Amino acid sequence: AQKITQTQPGMFVQEKEAVTLDCTYDTSDPSYGLFWYKQPSSGEMIFLIYQGSYDQQNATEGRYSLNFQKARKSANLVISASQLGDSAMYFCAMRESRNQFYFGTGTSLTVIP
Amino acid sequence: NAGVTQTPKFQVLKTGQSMTLQCAQDMNHEYMSWYRQDPGMGLRLIHYSVGAGITDQGEVPNGYNVSRSTTEDFPLRLLSAAPSQTSVYFCASSSPGQGNEKLFFGSGTQLSVL
Question: Which of A34, A39, A18 lies closest to A89, judged by CA?
Fold first, then answer.
């Protein structure tokens, strides 16, 4: 079974609108971490946001928030007020307690002016 | 602070050739790892290390060797390159502990095997 599933290969959003990128995960580990990374066309991997499995509140980092629904095993990324520079690939990732990281296949986001 | 340094950035090999991708970090991270990124596949873990002298296999280890003689360095060796190893390779490190142990990534190596 896939550890991380991103079901949206491509998404489009109008500039200044909000967008949600979906991520579901599969683990039996009680302690895990969830991450989102951005990969622009230049290729580097940029850390965006982190959510720990024991965190009670959803993580927020500026325009990024992580909608963490533990019972549903989902960790969706919400980007508010989209900007042209947000156009990139977005990867959801999970770290289990053994310190192995698993990545999803990514979602390509295009922001339309 | 250099972070994670990967070399080379680009490499073209012929089938059967060997090479080493270099990775060094200056953040005293215990955990280091190698990933390959292929279109539509995301990043897949090749090998990882939780400290000097300790390495383990990830999801796709075949055709690759690693060693960890120091905390700073974690080279990835291709002993006999195959076209299926054409990919973008990322080295990443983190500091295990409690909390946000995010991965710090190198800039990547684009490898083509002809």
Answer: A39
* A96 band by pLDDT with thresholds 50, 70 and 90: confident
The half-sphere exposure of B113 on its side-chain side, counting CA atoms within 13 A, is 17
Residues of B in contact with A42 (CB under 8 A): none
Given CB atoms, is B48 within the 8 Å cutoff of chain A? yes
The pLDDT of B49-78, averaged and rounded, is: 95
Q: Is the pLDDT score of B99 beyond 90?
A: no
Helices (H) and strands (E) in chain B, counts: 0, 11
Sign of torsion, CA A42 A16 A50 B101?
positive
From A3's Cα to the closest Cα of chain B, the distance in A is 11
Pick left, alpha or beta for residue A70 (phi over 0 → left; psi -120 to 50 → alpha; otherwise beta): alpha
Q: Please list, in sequence order, all residues whose beta carbon lies within 8 angstroms of the beta carbon of residue B95, skipping any fewer than 6 positions away.
A: B27, B28, B29, B30, B31, B101
Asked if B79 and B65 count as a contact pair (C-beta separation under 8 A), the reply is yes
Distance from CA of B42 to the nearest CA of A (A): 4
**Which tokens sit at B62?**
């075949």
B96 touches chain A (CB under 8 A): yes
Residue A65 near residue A48 (C-beta atoms within 8 A): no
